[in-house]
């Protein structure tokens, strides 16, 4: 998979309304979920207690935290777009974000993206990226929304 290389606001703007690409698949294993639980202090049994989840959960397995799924966005985004000539990148916001379905442990996810909107704010490139975090073999995405980033080009 080849990354889209962006060097300026104008190059970004040329892709308005276009699909920007998809990332590689990433497996969500129990170790990743446990580390996220430790980092966020969210040890709800549905995420970390594999025996109980197998017995009591409708999924018959543990599931990833919704915010773990969201936290993968920068890593997966970096596989799709290489924005160069920037001094700084700022996460500005999330809109219309919704969790569509749980990511069962052992599933693979990937990111698909589209440039929803772009504007030049006094030299700052504001991009709105429509995104979906898809689950392999599932019709409904795990997460979708619009991520807004501010790129400060040199």
UniProtKB/TrEMBL annotation:
InterPro entries, sorted: HotDog_dom_sf, MaoC-like_dom, NodN-like
Span of domain MaoC-like: 12-124
Coiled coil location: none
CDD domains, per the entry: NodN
Highest taxon, organism lineage: Bacteria
The name this protein goes by in its record: Acyl dehydratase
Organism per entry: Hoylesella enoeca
């Amino acid at each position: 998979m080849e990354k889209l290389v962006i060097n300026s606001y104008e190059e970004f703007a040329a892709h308005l309304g276009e699909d920007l690409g998809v990332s590689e698949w990433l497996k969500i294993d129990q170790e990743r979920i446990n580390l996220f639980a430790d980092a966020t202090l969210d040890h709800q049994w549905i995420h970390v207690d594999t025996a109980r989840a197998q017995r009591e959960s409708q999924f018959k397995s543990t599931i990833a935290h919704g915010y773990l799924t969201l936290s993968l966005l920068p890593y997966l985004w970096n596989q799709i777009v290489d924005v160069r000539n920037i001094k700084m990148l700022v996460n500005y916001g999330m809109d219309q974000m919704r969790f569509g379905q749980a990511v069962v442990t052992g599933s693979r996810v990937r990111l698909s993206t589209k440039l929803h909107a772009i504007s030049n704010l006094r030299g700052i490139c504001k991009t709105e990226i429509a995104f979906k975090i898809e689950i392999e073999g599932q019709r409904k995405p795990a997460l979708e929304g619009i991520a807004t980033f501010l790129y400060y080009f040199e």
